[in-house]
Amino acid sequence: MEFLLQPLTLLTFFPLLGVLVLLFINSEQKTAIRWTAMVTSLLTLGVSVWVFSMFNASNPDLQLEAKYPWIQVAGWNIYYYLAVDGLSILLVMLTTVLTPISILSTWKAVDERVKDFMIFFLLLEVGMLGVFLAQDLFLFYIFWEFTLVPMYFLIGIWGGPRRVYAAVKFFLYTMAGSILMLLAILFLGIKADTFNVPELMTKLPALYASGTIAASTQMFLFVAFAAAFAIKVPMWPLHSWLPDAHVEAPTAGSVILAGVLLKMGTYGFLRFNIPLFPNATVQAAPWIALLATIGIIYGAAVSYAQADVKKLVAYSSVSHLGFVMLGLFALNPEGVSGAILQMVNHGLSTGALFLLIGMIYEQTHTREIKVYGGLWKITPIFGTIMLIASLSSMGLPGLNGFVGEFTILLGAFGSKAIGSPWFAGLSALGVIMAAVYILYMFQKVFLGPAGEITHHHDLKDLNWREIATVIPLVVFMFWIGLYPKPFFDILAPAVDKLLLPLTALLH
Fold it and tell me: Alpha-carbon distance 390 to 441, whole Å?
């Protein structure tokens, strides 16, 4: 019983209670199914707020630990081990905030097999929370792979016309990278005689110093983990699954994919690559920065060329996540703190954009930019909220995107790991390019003469349910944009602890 009532166990597996209730509800009772999923996700949010209230931001160590022996056979010490620290607490909160928002967005949009949809969605929340909380590599891998299954079905059953192709591509890409990570996990576990991440961080320096794990092997392990995480981010040139998955996914799927699932990749670099393989991290930093910079420019350039507004936002994620990777591998407090905050910012702004695109798509059943025009006059509330989300995404001062991007560029300019301010200088072009493609999209859709859609549809402005769906995200956009100090205070102690072992290597 003590195991079940442990705060992090309760948080991770609480959505399963909703799944159990849903199994006993008749598939025809769609309203009851929706409310059950909604209440479950809101109660999970409540549990996460309770966990957050117990979290001590000034303590850089792992907190609220749930650690129990799990698989203890033939010398394999595998633990059920959950814990939270400053590196993961904001991502846990982001997950529990976006899940009820995503479910609320499906109220009218999902009308087929509603019961199956909600079950998969709640199972996905379990997997995502598990990824951010797991502190044993074996347990982490189980949660990591588990998230694939519900997302595969969410895209493959409720997606667009090419949904099966997009779902299979998503699944195969992610699985391919994960196999390399599994091999690296097995190697580490056997060499260090533990899969427990804090124990690994204690034992690995001695194994590196003694030559038990050679420098070349450390780089191989780094690359094996990086392959899985880079595909998930997705970093250029491993990004080609993302536009298909986003375009074909239902709105709620796109929100959770952009808002949380992509962050699992950047979080993986933060939690595992940087602390477990310090020498390889320092060696790889300039190369990662190069790929991140190419991704920033490439993502922005390709976004501008898109005719489909959802594809435009999908490619913008390649650019925005490039900033996150640049900040992480600046390997200084400014860059890493900015990168973690930007993970949250991207979840808020891109999540809001996908929600809003889904709302207009429900009325018009098209996402072609050229058929819109003059929407602002007809749907002023929709236009205003879309403008705020767009400005947030392109990094306007006063909104959340600016704080993250500015801090990342600050870190990248002064980074000893990257070794050149040119990466930051070129990446700054991505900010300008983001303004170009976002303002181009906004002008085409909302301003100018009325397009053919406006003539053929009796368009309605957002209703109260739709406003309630996006307003929480708008509040956070302004809060982080105007007063980011509380968020940086949460991050600072854990980031300093993460970077401490790297300081000697960077001098």
Answer: 9
pLDDT for residue 453: 67
Beta carbons of 297 and 429 less than 8 angstroms apart: yes
Three-class SS of residue 73?
A: strand
The CB density around residue 237, as the number of other CB atoms within 10 Å, is: 11
**Contact in structure between 257 and 100 (CB atoms under 8 Å):** no
- Of 310, 458, 462, nearest to 380 by C-alpha is 462
Place of tokens 């170009």: 436
357's tokens: 């695109």
Q: What is the pLDDT of residues 153-170, one digit of tens each?
A: 888 888 777 888 888 888
Q: How far apart are CA 413 and CA 416, in angstroms?
A: 9
10 Å CB burial of residue 416 (0-12, 13-18, 19+) is middle
Q: What is the separation, in whole angstroms, between the first and last Cα of the chain?
A: 50
Can you give the pTM of this predicted structure?
A: 0.89
In whole angstroms, what is the distance from residue 449 CA to residue 159 CA? 32
Rounded Cα gap, residues 409 and 162, in angstroms: 38
Contact assessment for residue 374 and residue 446, using Cβ atoms and an 8 Å cutoff: yes
- What sections of 68-113 are H helices per DSSP? 89-109
> How far apart are alpha carbons 375 and 364 in whole angstroms?
12
What residue spans of 329-415 are helical by DSSP H? 333-364, 375-378, 380-394, 400-413
Residue 80 has, within 13 A of its CA and on its CB side, a CA count of: 10
